[in-house]
Amino acid sequence: MTKFGEMADRTGRDLFAEAGETAIEDAGIDRGEIDALYLGNFMGELSERQGHMGPLMAKMLGLDVPATRVESACASGGMAVRQGIQAVRAGSADVVLVGGVERMHNMGTTGATGGLSVAADDLWEIKHGITFPGAYALMAKRYFETHGGDREDLAEVAVKNHANAANNPLAQYQTEITIEKVLDAFPVADPLGLFDASPITDGAAAAIIVSEDYAAEHDLDAPVSITGTGQGTDDLALQHRDSITWTPATADAAEEAYADAGIDADDVDFLEVHDCFTIAEVLALEGLGLYDEGEAITAAREGETTADGELPVNLSGGLKAKGHPVGATGLAQISEMTKLFRGDHVNSDAVEDAEVGLTHNAGGTVASAVVHVLEVEQ
Amino acid sequence: MSDEVRDDGYDDFMDALEEGEPYYVECANGHASLPPRRLCPECATDDLGEAPLAETGELLTYNVTHVPTPEFADDVPFVLGIAEFGDVRLTGQVRADSEDVEVGDTVSIGTDVSETNGERYIAFDLE
Lengths: 378, 127
Hints:
Distance between the termini of chain B: 28 Å
Strand order of the largest sheet of chain A: 2-1-3-5
CATH topology of chain A: Peroxisomal Thiolase, Chain A, domain 1
Helix content of chain B: under 10%
Oligomer: heterodimer
Helix content of chain A: 25-40%
Strand content of chain B: 35-45%
Number of domains of chain A: 1
CATH class of chain A: Alpha Beta
Structural class of chain B: mainly beta
CATH class of the largest domain in chain B: Mainly Beta
Shape of chain A: globular
Distance between the termini of chain A: 25 Å
Order of helices and strands of chain B: HEEEEEEEE
Number of strands of chain B: 8
CATH superfamily of chain A: Thiolase/Chalcone synthase
Radius of gyration of chain A: 19 Å
Mean pLDDT of chain B: 96
Largest sheet of chain A: 4 strands, mixed
CATH architecture of the largest domain in chain B: Beta Barrel
Strand order of the largest sheet of chain B: 4-5-6-8-7
């Protein structure tokens, strides 16, 4: 992946070319071996008047292969990974390049807020003033009313994820923050403040996925296996859900991924989850079956999900501190978890003996969710 | 309004709401949804009709939006909520000071227009 951050002048194609080239070099394969490209991107049309990115990005990497863009809002990257896995499993490809990219800072704050909002329902949400910070604020407010908890509990999530990113050279924010700073921040959409929100980020990430047979035949050093994939879908509009605080798309994606990998939630050693807002990390941990409904709000405060806790969550810094170039996020989760497993991530020591990791990437107010199980043999 | 091109179904709903006669889509099996629909999102029957929306609803949650989309740049801050009217939930702006709003409040429904671009939106008033 590229460094995540504020790079308003860099085009999406240049960001992706860097990430793709890094992935090809890291995998140690010849680019001529790549059979297909799946690219996650959410709002290229809005940010740089650029649709139809599949062919564009293929040529940026000197590839002449079938190339398809995948769009599922902020889950676009994770869905591109899933498309790649399915192509390999179907036998239509042995080697796929999966990637994601988003350029956002050139839109400005209001422009990016407007761009992101199109992941909501135009007729029944956007026309009435919803934003994504606003939508997650609606979920947080309802959570507090239904299950308890408060802004300080959520602030613990932000503090944890910033601490995890503090020494991550690819993270947008490599600074620790305090509870007070989170609580005193500008209210983007009360009850969520600026430090409850992931930032606007430019960046790209990519990975090479190969079949087991290909890895064996070519004696590839590919220690991390994606053993499970799952996807869930829900009503697009938050108002149409049975519950404002329970995310069935996450639960469905997790159930499918666990079954696919032949594991239970209890087997997961650490996770990268979609913390676009602090409350989103709480809802994800519950939807994934790692906490009962209404119980994950205290996980960060109790130190259960910190780097030295029983179940480290977002050791990369998460979307919150690593940054959230939306179409690239699902790939960044795969990239960071791979490094965490291999031992070449700054936080690898926290998961030295880990065998099972999980990535969770969500779109909109979790109308789309995609979960992957990653495993290594210790 | 600058609606040279309408969104059929949605704009019909908003017209009815302005006239004080809001409705929702009800299928033969009693499922509620919002237009436009060709079939029920719950059971996929195409046996659909209209039923009057409850006059008041319960506010399920709300926020106070300070960073808006461009369409509401001049409208912030505003209170945005989801309210439940019988079997139907709608998202709209609560026309009240945020200090006076609580989850569980009873609200009525109408329309208002954006100060930014004059487009209409769903508005809730505290009862």
